[in-house]
## 1
Amino acid sequence: MSVSVQITQRLGDFALDASFESEGGVTALFGPSGCGKTSIINAIAGLSRPDAGHVRLGDQVLFNSATGVFVPPHKRRIGYVFQEPRLFPHMSVAQNIGYGRPNQLYSTRGDGGLAVLGIEHLLERYPRDLSGGEAQRVAIARALTSQPKVLLMDEPLAALDDARKTEFLPYLQALVAKTSIPVFYVSHAMSEVAQLADHLVVMRDGRVARSGALAQLLSDPAAISDIGVREAGAILNVTVAQADASDGLSVLATSAGRLFLPKVQAEDGTAMRVRIRASDVILSKDKPDGLSALNILPCKVTQIHEGQGPGVAVALRSGEDALMARITRRSARTMGLTAGLSCYAVIKSVSVAPTDMGGRGTESRVAQMP
Ligand SMILES: Nc1ncnc2c1ncn2[C@@H]1O[C@H](COP(=O)(O)OP(=O)(O)OP(=O)(O)O)[C@@H](O)[C@H]1O
């Protein structure tokens, strides 16, 4: 279901002037604290009324200042998941999920919602006996029981520690793979966004700095300044060739060769995404020999983007995927890098964090092993 948002709104001293379209799926709103992500979510939910513009979900107009349409929040069929689970402490999980809608619990159970979220065994417990991750999964189930037309998630992992986040993400991935309703996912963590999103909206100072298909935007060197030099990096589609290579690594097949990366919790044959940060890629014109790095992928330079500082972003094609390297302007000059040049990308195994591996890969592609 396509989504179209175009809103201007003054909130105290803050001016929101945001416009983007998305084809549905998971749309991530990404940007630093205070850039206006929650304000957009609130406008979609109808919790605030923009000064001008429109919000459209498919052919349903939720807000249009020109025609005076403003559908009140309770008629929008929105599922909202906040940073904190906000469960009722005096009610069991089952009661929390079915709260106000006794029949809906069974529909969530019926379509596998509870199983996907891994909470079937928690139904009799009370919120005080749940971990932060479990409570948040219950909160998602509760949001789904109203059979919403859109799911809004405002930093749902923010209150969890890193270990719980890693544990939680596969549930979220399974859920978004299963649901056909559009999901808006607010985050300032690119690792989460890279695993979950189909479409990325990068916000800055109340405006949309970039909007586009996630993989395309993350491999666009011109977008680095908006995404942040530390966060920038392309997504490789990989297939797990050997999840447990017995030395603590997994062997992952890409269309250009094998990668040895920290062990993934997945079955052999699983398609997934791996985010390779641009600053973790070293380039070599010749195939390196006698190097400690295990991962060497043949590439072709597609574009070199010079920014303001001493670094340049080099866009690369690696088999069917895009990669990006951030190197110094000096190195690029010394190497004589130009578009079309063949080279090798070197990626240290330990530089890829477990949180950068996962998410829905492209299932149809057959990875070739060299
Ligand atoms: N009702 C309001 N009145 C005045 N200012 C507001 C109001 N709502 C939001 N703001 C301001 O608008 C700006 C954007 O807030 P918003 O919560 O949308 O940012 P955000 O990107 O979601 O931030 P965070 O990641 O910290 O949650 C902030 O400066 C905030 O103080």
## 2
Amino acid sequence: MSNETTSGPSVPAPSLPWPAIGVVLVLASLLLIPLGIGNAFVTHIFVTICLMAALSSAWNLVGGFAGQLSLGHATFYGIGAYTAVILVNLGITPWIGMFAGAGIAAIVGMAISYPCFRLKGPFFSLASIAFLEVFRVLTLHFSDFTGGATGKMIPLKLGWTWMVFRERWPSLLIIFGMLCAVLVVVWAVRRSRLGFYLIATRERESAAKAAGVKTVQVRLVAVAISSALCAMLGTFHAMYLTFIEPSAMFSLTFSIQIAMFALIGGLGTVSGPLLGAVLLVPLTEWARASFGASALGLHGFVYGVVLLLAVLFMPNGIIGLLQKFRRAPHHELDEDEQTTQTDSIKAPAQATTPPSPDREGIGRDVMRVQNLNKRFGGLHVTKNVNFTLREGEVLGLIGPNGAGKTTLFNMLSGFLTPNEGSVTVRGPDGGYHTPVNPADFAALGVGRTFQIVQPFAAMTVEENIMVGAFYRHHDEHDAREAARQTAWRMGLGPLLQDEARGLTIGGLKRLEVARVMAMEPRILLLDEVMAGINQTDVRRAIDLMLSIRDSGVSIIAIEHVMQAVMSLSDRVLVLAAGEVIAEGDPHEVVRDPHVIEAYLGKEFANAHR
Ligand SMILES: Nc1ncnc2c1ncn2[C@@H]1O[C@H](COP(=O)(O)OP(=O)(O)OP(=O)(O)O)[C@@H](O)[C@H]1O
């Protein structure tokens, strides 16, 4: 079993007060310093900082939270600029044009991102650049509307209605307000179910799907919000510049700059892009002013050097570096502490799911598997698999390596479509349904774990479990509370604020179960949750599974640890070479000569005589 974790950017806990105080102080100085100095050039620099910080924060929703590294975000900025300028020329105020541009950009963003989500890493970035170029060429082509290569002037109508001013301070007020609004949107997204789902999708798409996340849908929502915000900022900038032309509005360099402030400040964090812009824009503007025409393009060189240094020494950006200093040492549980903790968690555990000595009888069928066949090319992996799972039952699924157990689980949770056969699940309404994808299975109450643990590495233990809890609790406070209760029940209480990437394999296994339990499933598919954990943890896991079973959940458990299989299972199903070779009472099944021959071996049989 590999302890596989990704190393995505760090995600700070959103509720800590010090970053909020820092952000408020930075914002206050962005407004008060230029207003206090009253110099046009200084005000211009602060307008640029606010604009870049806002654009980068909006980009961060897609590039940071969703992990889709777009290098073509100027497309939406350009759409916002052109829409507003065309409308201004028709006599419509940019305050309206701004929203028209936002709507168009959101639709365009979703339309071009949907097919590109299949592309990973640099391929998505390249596709985003290609679309940027397409829009630049389109703007050149439709010159009747856009002015073509010569660009378009904004009619010189001064005043708040037209967003054009003789002085710079009104523009500063507008862009400062827009920056605050963008930050509030990003902050709200980060705290919401959408934010958790985006980060979960970025970290582990399969695990996110298993938690009921509609991964394409949440990324499309993020793209729509991000594109709309960029377009609104594009409108402002067009009015500020009073002139637009295609190569400036749909510029690759500008797109890279937008992404870079977030990369340097802290990808996937609320305050990172703001910090990046505050530190970098004055530096480059100073370089531009100091060296002027003698070193044209010097700002690009400055950006390059800073980016190189950031990648080398601060892979998680400035925010990641700051976090490192304040992060508490990792909390590893020792044996005594674990015992105490297990004792101490009994109370909340019993409060939610009392382990019943008079376990309710096994009820009606909750899952029916009929004639399941799966082929990978010429390899026939599962052959005519039939079985049923009943309410409150624990079904042990055993068999040698390569027998097709995980493949079967993938079909029971919608991750694979069978070539023949069907899986029907009894829904909360009492009717039987045939789900087809992970979201459908989750909606019917089927939760699963993965053989290779799939933590959302950059999230804390609490946040990992919250991704599951959000399935039932849409409000952040409710989801956090449910996650905490589940964590204590699973023995993860003292580790709530630890990052998942720091857990031991035993901890990661428990986290995997905790996340799915937080979804309050009716059917639980456990894939080797006891592999690679010590004897004490195995005993604890057995107790935990019994308490889960007693709460009325039906369980199918793939397990090689026979101690667990024997003490947990009401029934055992043995799969060998894709076929069910035995099914029934565990004590009878382990005596079956076919099972001994195919899986258990003679030594096991002798030991259990
Ligand atoms: N996506 C795939 N493409 C091709 N072959 C696959 C794929 N997934 C699984 N297999 C093959 O199907 C067979 C069954 O694999 P599966 O992982 O389901 O077995 P398993 O019983 O879960 O084994 P283990 O106990 O080792 O996890 C193996 O031969 C495996 O190589």
## 3
Amino acid sequence: MMNESFPLLEIDGVTVTFGGLTALDDVSFAVREGETVALIGPNGAGKTTLFNVVCGLVRPGRGTVRVAGAPAPSSATGLVGAGVSRTLQGLGLFGTMTVLENVLVPLSTTGGDPAHAHDALARLGLAGLAHRPAGTLPYPERKRVALARALVTEPRLLLLDEPAGGLGAEDIDALAGTVRDLAGDGRGVLLVEHHVDFVMKVADRVVVLDFGRVIAAGTPDEVRGDPAVEAAYLGVGAA
Ligand SMILES: Nc1ncnc2c1ncn2[C@@H]1O[C@H](COP(=O)(O)OP(=O)(O)OP(=O)(O)O)[C@@H](O)[C@H]1O
């Protein structure tokens, strides 16, 4: 636990409604430097909506989001400037562009040193694939390209949308090591994930959402033993 360290993300009392539906209901938690926080919960619990709030794509009806101590920027370039980067569930790669070209894409709008692309590829074990069209790679490699692309802007806060989704056991183990290393460098990591074993391996803290409300928050062990979490999620349909 790193409670003394600087909060990179502070979600305070965030409420979002879509028409009559309350997608997020008074949600509060923080992600600190060097900390990995996992957001889990059943389908429709509000996890993606929360990511979208952090990225300025959805405006909360109530509550605030602060990034590195300041109100969260609402533009993509503002977020990168504040040190935030995100991966997408659908990866969003350009299949005919090479791996390196894909990883360079964020720098075309924000500027930054292209050498970071090579660092990011090396970190993800992709240096040897830099000149391959991204669309020709198997899914696990494409997921690593998407993560390398998120790293190229040198974020302090990483938002990972289902990073373990669609991966086998070996790739999930490697990913767990990568996420631990990224947090070990002092980054904050917030991830949305259905793969509970992966979450238990990488998360310092787990926040459990159900019908838009935080029903539990704590260490993986604390959350695993919580009867409300068992009932809402872990006992049924968890991967
Ligand atoms: N743009 C929108 N308009 C109306 N309702 C929405 C919108 N986006 C999300 N919702 C609703 O808000 C609730 C929360 O959805 P959200 O996608 O955040 O859940 P989730 O936890 O990410 O689910 P999943 O695990 O299936 O991705 C759901 O009931 C969803 O149908």
## 4
Amino acid sequence: MGRSWSLVGRAAMSWYRFLHIDSSVKHLLRADFQGRELWKCWMSNHLPAVTARRWKHGAPDSLNCSWLMHDQHLELKYSDMVMRLNYVWLRDHCRSASCYNPKTNQRSLDTAQVDLAIKPAKIRSDNDTIYITWPDNHMTKYDLSWLAKYSFEGQKQTVQRRILWNASVYKEAQMPYVTYNSVMESDEELKKFLEAFLLYGIAFIDEVPVSVEATEAVALRVGLIRESIFGRMWDFTSDFSRGDTAYTKVALDRHIDTTYFQEPCGVQLFHCLRHDGTGGRTLLLDGFHAAENVRQENPHNFEVLTKVPIKHEYIENVGGCHNHMIGIGPILNVYPWNNELYLMRYNNYDRTVISTVPHDVVHQWYVAHRALTTELRKPENEIWVKLKPGKVLFVDNWRVLHGRDAFTGYRRLCGCYLMRDDVLNTARFLGIKI
Ligand SMILES: C[N+](C)(C)CCCC[C@H](N)C(=O)O
Ligand SMILES: O=C(O)CCC(=O)C(=O)O
Ligand SMILES: [Fe+2]
């Protein structure tokens, strides 16, 4: 093992060692990939022993709230929850007029001025609120329901609501039929569309005028366009005007687009403006469904795919186009606090030389990649659709893979990428909780 470390440097060593699974980290490793467990074990090791102090209760009429002061945190029971709230965190989250500006929703408090050994001087509560007086006499008021929602104990439960699908689940899905006119005119219709899109990672808008302009208009109704080396709106045929297989007639296996961007584009739109010929059906499949199957069947494979950084690259020198893009990151990206999957970076065409991983880890990675590929290739996970003029497909490019059949004849496809943040912003504006 020793010699290969020199290739990767000291910083990388710790996590490579992680993958070698020396037995002292084995427990941590396993726990790390089941976030809650990590916290459980971390907390039980680090919680100071409960001091023999008595639980304090709120006002006599509020038996639903009681607390115990520890060295660095408050243990707060509220309805059926137990929260552990660090004192610096509590002071930092004071929403009083001098600490927080409700007009801008921004903090005014300088967190660096908070004594890291701060402790409440006095605590009292009534039915819905707990009041903490700090040593300098500043008083903070917290809604108990706010704490229940935003405390770690409240937030770690929160994951994006998704329906993971294979072909048969998708067939049963109640996908709304929404049209260009309805979406352009009605927020309710747009909301219906976005709710389906966020649940399934794909959704359609029908009866769209067959033009790049109308496609752009409907794109802008959903979010902001993510301009890229392929343009703002792209509109292409199989003329190899660009140095990429997409611009030919050959089949494309399932993939995520722009894996060679440090942040792959969040959403992609396709509108087939014309096809006189055969073939060219679109393949779609839920990458998260496949990845969750890998997690279930072999957690180690899943871990490896979340840890090993892989490089993707786009090199183009065709006509006037000179581009060289590089993106590096694991194939599966999970939030570190709860292990929820949020981004997949799977594109076997654009994956470039693996040169940052020692030989034994690389083998584990190939095994894990094979397991994921096997899942992704199961026919029962695939859906095939023929894109027709008028039907615009939206794809969550962080989750759903696309591909196509080979085709004959003239085929013109237009579309664009969207900024993911702005699509989510539209959804939140319409009242979707996300
Ligand atoms: C034609 N269009 C602009 C949509 C995509 C071109 C990008 C193709 C590239 N191989 C990738 O998968 O990212
Ligand atoms: O031609 C198609 O249907 C899709 C090609 C493709 O993968 C892309 O443009 O990103
Ligand atoms: Fe693509």
